Amino acid sequence: MKRRILIVDDEKEFAETLSERLTMRDFDTTISVSGEDAIEKIKGFIFDVVILDVSMPGKSGIDVLREIKKIKPLTEVIMLTGHATVETAIEGMKLGAHDYLIKPCETEELVTKINKAYSKKAEHEERIREARVREIISSPRSVLNQ
Amino acid sequence: MTNGTEKTGYANIQFFGKMVASLSHEIKNVFAIIHENAGLLEDLIVLSEKGMPLDPERLKGLSKRMRDQIIRGNKIVQNMNRFAHSADEPIENIDLNQTLQLLRHLFERPVAMKGIVLETKDSENEVTIRTNPFVLENMLWLCVNAAMDSMTVSKKMVLAGEEAGDSARIRVSGLDAMPETLEANIKRGTGEMLLKELNGTLTVDSKTGALILNLPKSIS
Q1: Beta-carbon neighbour count of residue A87 at 10 Å?
Q2: Helix axis angle, B4-49 relative to B133-148, nearest 10°?
Q3: Which CATH number is A32's domain given?
Q4: What domain range is A117 assigned to?
Q5: Cα-flanking dihedrals φ and ψ of residue B181, to 5°?
Q6: What region, left, alpha or beta, does residue B154 occupy, with left being phi > 0 and alpha being psi -120 to 50 degrees?
């Protein structure tokens, strides 16, 4: 299955072009041009990785990151930032973002980070699956009760 | 202990820094878009080398997108340059409409970050005043910044200049919450000193939801 990426950036042309380039690299991409729209999409769909601009009008990248981690904690986030907002991106990492990149960034570097973020998410999901299996084996009745 | 002039000087440097940081962020966005478009062009060339035909219309579109971003970047740099030169002379004749249009461009991004749209309304007649352009710009930023916190429902702020007999007025309107402390908040710190340098006064019009900066036609 293709890796599902959400690109969130208020610069529509940037988001569209990056989306096209990632699609060429076999990713399944969706774009959002506002934090509010991104949250709605995250609620309704499953994304593996979110590429999130730090500095956006209205809901900021940090606000969106907080909500993503509340709604879909396993979804990995890569923050995109200008030089002036690197500190905000580091704050984002403290809040659970996987990594950050400074704009303009090299696509291959971004692809590497997306793949790493995806692997991290897949590992988490696998651990959760294993824990569930262990739970079923150790207490089959609890599953029947469910 | 710092004196008033030092405080005003520092406030002016802070204001200059804030505006330049905001404009440079916009320029970075322009670079990022050009970078992605150039990258897309490279991707298409790589695909064409592998046998996928290149669509000339596609290339024309990409070229236009890059040119449009260069035009956008050029406008930002022009505004940055006009802003930098506004500190050249301590007292100058300025056209109020032109100054407010420049400020709309300068303040657009920080205002948009709070989800507010900034507009200007030109006065019917040209209004020229003799003042300190840079201090006026800083004072108006203090007003706009405070006004943003006084907008709860309204999402549109308008800057308008007008002649008022022997003086001139700049209205910052669109405010829908008028805290009693609004005027004091602006004057606190450097606002009062900037007003003094401009020989101006600041009033709050609760009925129309506006901050009004009253300025003399000439401070020299």
Answers
A1: 10
A2: 80
A3: 3.40.50.2300
A4: 4-145
A5: -90, 0
A6: beta
Element (DSSP H or E) covering residue A6 = strand A4-8
Cβ-count burial B167-198 (b if 16+ within 10 Å, e if not)? ebbbbbbbbeebeeebbebbbeebbebbbebb
Mean pLDDT of successive 10-residue stretches along chain B, which has 220 residues: 67 92 92 96 95 93 96 97 94 95 96 93 91 96 91 90 92 84 81 92 90 91
If phi > 0 it is left, if psi is from -120 to 50 it is alpha, else beta; for residue A9 that is beta
What's the domain count of chain A?
Answer: 1
B22, B30 contact by CB (below 8 A): no
Question: What number of residues does chain A have?
Answer: 146
| Helices vs strands, H then E, count in chain A | 6, 5
- Whether B33 sits inside 8 A of A11 (CB atoms) is yes
Q: H-type helices in chain B, by residue range?
A: 4-49, 56-85, 96-112, 133-148, 182-187, 191-198
* Residue in B with minimal Cα distance to A105: B32
Task: Determine the Cα–Cα distance for residues A116 and A99; give it in Å rounded to an integer.
Answer: 10
B37 contacts on A by Cβ (under 8 Å): 17
Written as one letter, the residue type at A101 is L
Work out the burial of residue A82: count CB atoms within 10 Å of its CB; fewer than 13 is exposed, 13-18 middle, 19 or more buried.
buried
Which residues of A sit within 8 Å Cβ distance of B?
11, 13-14, 17-18, 20-21, 24, 55-58, 60, 82-85, 103-104, 107
3-state SS class at B78: helix
Q: What distance in Å separates the CA atoms of residue B191 and residue A88, rounded to the nearest whole number?
A: 29
Q: pLDDT tens-digit profile of B52-90?
A: 999 999 999 999 999 999 999 999 999 999 999 999 999
CA dihedral A35→A37→A41→A47, nearest 10 degrees, is -30
CA distance A58 to chain B (A): 5
